[in-house]
Design goal:
- The complex is a heterodimer of chains A (490) and B (200).
- By secondary structure, chain A is α/β, with parallel strands linked by helices.
- Chain A folds into 5 domains: 41 residues, no CATH class; 52 residues, no CATH class; 217 residues, Rossmann fold; 76 residues, Ubiquitin-like (UB roll) (Roll), CATH 3.10.20; 75 residues, NADH-ubiquinone oxidoreductase 51kDa subunit, iron-sulphur binding domain (de novo design (two linked rop proteins), Up-down Bundle), CATH 1.20.1440.
- Chain A is built from 21 helices and 15 strands.
- In chain A, helix 8 packs parallel to helix 15, helix 11 crosses helix 14 and helix 14 packs across helix 15.
- Chain B has 200 residues and is α+β, with helices and mostly antiparallel strands.
- Helices cover 20% and strands 16% of the residues of chain B.
- In chain B, the strands form 3 sheets. Chain B has a 5-stranded mixed β-sheet, with no helix packed on it. In chain B, strands 6-9 form a two-stranded antiparallel sheet.
- Classes of the chains: A alpha/beta (490), B alpha+beta (200).
- The structure holds iron/sulfur cluster (3 copies) and FE2/S2 (inorganic) cluster.
- Chain A: GO terms for molecular function: 4 iron, 4 sulfur cluster binding; metal ion binding.
- Chain A: InterPro entries: Nuo51_FMN-bd, Nuo51_FMN-bd_sf, Nuop51_4Fe4S-bd, Nuop51_4Fe4S-bd_sf, Soluble_ligand-bd.
Chain lengths: 490, 200
């Protein structure tokens, strides 16, 4: 990093002692109090769980969770493995492994099977872990055009605006508005790629990072050039070890080939759901507890180290090379979006579909039969249960798409058990900064456990959580409320 | 500049906080520390959107509502949840608000509690009784960026477990604490209180 940052300094010193924490604080130039607050915040500094762990995602919850849980010594939060769920992990002194096809595969070697990806526009027709393979797929056109003087900031911004590209991380904010705001800010400015995918049910960014690092990097570099960022940081979920190694290799290859126009590096995430919230993410990069900031000011004005910062999701940036190659008009006609489809469908996986595709059709593409399903969870934990099969999967519609997770549940599934998993997840992941969220998510766990259906309690729970400081608390009751609606309709 | 609060026109100075013109309860905000926007008791609706009155500046033409049904439900519920989880016996302000909003904590049946935390008596001057702590962070800010710049306090844990502590969880005399008493002064719940007031 340009400035010493506490998290990497602590990571280098694992396992920690009091002396090592004090040393990291000195090197980072922060009070010991701050360093201790950080150590007492992120799970990995307190020591990770050991033994056999069940990945506790909504699919595992639907598959007889208590029975699956008996086979494990503990649980681990969702890891983008929903299409393969239920999955067990092994955490030992030798490292972290995933039980896969009868073997223990180290995290640094495990990638989602390439066959899970279905699509040929945004999704690669074959994996491209090397620059040669990326070039063979027709890649690097955008950066070449830049080098040849055929592209400039104005042209990139114009294309993004004409395409109407909306952020793919869940908020669906117009990308060009954020880009222009940063472009107008004073240097130094930064681009942070939000690759901290941790919304249950989503595995699109993980897949892109693991199989198409150059596409992500090309998109990031084009965005950085367009807004005048002096540095690119890829904030990657630290468990995605194979993706991180692949990205670091790809960065080196781009540099050797003379295409790394902006210095770029990987930052290992803090390892919590809240780290994906853009301001909490910036706090963790600055060596603090990943607690969301009050907005305004927004990161485009005061972001990393107080400088104008563009924070963009992986999939959003991966669209840039495609959008520039095809032109905004053509891109817009099919507006590709990645949907992570899992649960009770015959072919769970990652599907590239045009925005606006009806939910029922998306399910059928994945070998699901809507009429045979009880409901889907749309969007993730911060999502809703629905059985509206005609719902067009588009932004700004009746229901939020989130980042595009669709988890299907058959008629036999106890949806309350799935909801219990989500309620537990929110309670565990609440950062505790504001009042409604840690209190409300804890109260909610009790309500869900006793199958509380009292509308006045639910209404007050919603009215209060809605007042939380960030999206985590604000959305924590959506799934609960929607389950009661689905029950009423059934 | 002029704005409307609950339908009435009011005048306000440029740069003033909504708090100064809107009648709302507060808990985390303190003029001497940087804490604000945390407790959410002071939320108001500004042109239909929720905003903390302690962290929002007035703007010309704003339409502010302080007492919608939703806001009343929010304050009542928050107070109920605080009472359910935390010992508020030395927080008369909060007890008064609970009465005013008709709070009935019992309707939520159960919640994890912070009441079991044992009081920490590690110095001759004040007690740290975190069973009464609502985690408003005023003390941490008073000791750090807000007033003292001493950094003898920080936060540990997440979610409902989050609470103030010292660096390395050491007794206060082994930290940079200078026993200025600022943290005690700003604590709104009696979680930090002078030992001079304890009998026996
Ligand atoms: S809503 Fe939850 S996660 Fe967000 S700031 Fe408040 S406590 Fe933290
Ligand atoms: S008494 Fe100690 S802990 Fe409290 S504000 Fe003063 S220096 Fe900080
Ligand atoms: S001890 Fe007092 S001032 Fe400090 S966080 Fe708790 S309630 Fe707030
Ligand atoms: S007083 Fe405004 S949020 Fe606490």
């Amino acid at each position: 990093m340009e400035q010493p940052s506490l998290l990497p300094l602590l990571d280098e010193r694992l396992p920690l002692t009091e002396e090592k924490v004090a040393e990291a604080a000195r090197l980072a130039g922060v009070p010991l109090a701050q360093a201790w607050g950080v150590v007492a915040y992120y799970p990995r500094y307190r020591g990770l769980p050991q033994g056999r762990l069940l990945v506790d995602d909504p699919v595992a919850r639907a598959r007889g969770f208590s029975r699956l849980r008996e086979e494990a010594e503990g649980t681990y939060p969702p890891l983008g493995l929903e299409a393969l769920s239920p999955v067990y992990l092994r955490f030992t002194e030798k490292g972290r492994f995933l039980e896969w096809e009868g073997r223990w595969v180290p995290f640094r070697e495990f990638r989602l099977p390439f066959a899970l990806g279905r699509g040929h526009g945004l999704l690669p027709p074959e994996p491209a872990p090397t620059l040669a393979q990326y070039l063979a797929l027709g890649g690097l056109g955008g950066l070449r055009a830049w080098k040849g003087g055929l592209l400039d900031p104005g042209k990139v911004l114009k294309a993004v605006e004409e395409a109407g590209l909306l952020g793919r991380g869940g908020a669906a904010f117009p990308t060009h508005v954020k880009m222009r705001a940063v472009a107008q800010g004073q240097a130094p400015k930064y681009l942070v790629v939000n690759a901290d995918e941790s919304e249950p049910g989503n595995f699109k960014d993980r897949f892109l990072l693991e199989h198409h690092p150059f596409l992500v990097l090309e998109g990031a570099l084009l965005a950085a050039l367009a807004v005048g960022a002096s540095r690119v940081y890829l904030y990657v979920r630290e468990e995605f070890e194979a993706a991180i190694l692949g990205l670091e290799r790809a960065i080196r290859e781009l540099e050797e080939a003379g295409f790394l126009f902006v210095p770029t590096e990987v930052f290992r995430s803090g390892g919590l759901y809240i780290c994906g919230e853009e301001t909490a993410l910036l706090e963790s990069m600055e060596g603090k507890r990943a607690e969301p900031r009050l907005k305004p000011p927004f990161p485009v004005e005061r972001g990393l180290w107080g400088r104008p910062t563009l924070v963009q999701n992986v999939e959003t940036l991966a669209n840039l090379p495609l959008l520039l190659r095809e032109g905004p008009e053509a891109w817009r006609r099919k507006e590709p979006k990645l949907f992570s489809i899992s649960g009770d469908v015959a072919r769970p996986g990652l599907y590239e579909l045009p925005l606006g595709t009806p939910l029922g059709e998306a399910l059928r593409r994945a070998g699901g039969e809507p009429e045979a399903l009880q409901a889907v969870l749309l969007g993730g934990a911060a999502g809703v249960f629905t059985r509206d099969w005609d719902l067009p999967l588009a932004y700004g519609g009746r229901l939020p798409l989130g980042a595009g997770a669709i988890v299907a549940f058959g008629k036999d599934v106890d949806l309350w058990e799935v909801l219990e998993g989500l309620a537990h997840f929110f309670q565990e992941e609440s950062c505790g900064k504001c009042f409604p969220c840690p209190l409300g998510t804890a109260v909610q766990v009790g309500m869900v456990r006793r199958r509380e259906r009292d509308p006045s309690l639910l209404q007050d729970l919603a009215a209060t959580l809605r007042g939380s400081l960030c999206g985590l608390g604000q959305s924590a009751f959506w799934a609960y409320r929607s389950l009661l609606e689905v029950e009423g309709a059934a | 500049m002029r704005l409307k609060v609950n339908g009435k026109e009011v005048e306000a100075k440029e740069g003033a906080l909504l708090l100064e013109v809107a009648p709302v309860p507060t808990l985390c905000h303190h003029p001497h520390t940087e804490t604000r926007g945390v407790c959410r008791l002071c939320l108001v609706e500004v042109n239909g959107r929720l905003a903390p009155a302690c962290a929002t500046e007035v703007r010309e033409g704003m339409e502010v509502r302080t007492d919608t049904e939703g806001l009343k439900a929010l304050r009542r519920t928050l107070l109920e949840w605080l009472a359910l989880t935390t010992d508020l016996s030395l927080a008369p302000g909060l007890l008064g608000l609970m009465a005013a909003y008709g709070a009935e904590p019992g309707r939520w049946k159960e919640a994890p509690s912070r009441r079991g935390r044992p009081p920490i008596r590690d110095n001759p001057f004040f007690l740290r009784d975190y069973a009464k702590c609502v985690n408003c962070r005023r003390c941490v800010d008073a000791c750090g960026d807000g007033i003292m710049g001493v950094y003898a306090l920080t936060l540990a844990g997440r979610g409902l477990q989050a609470h103030p502590t010292t660096p390395l969880d050491r007794p206060l005399p082994e930290t940079p604490c200078v026993f200025c008493g600022n943290c005690v002064q700003v604590c709104p719940t009696g979680a930090l209180r002078p030992l001079a007031l304890e009998v026996g």
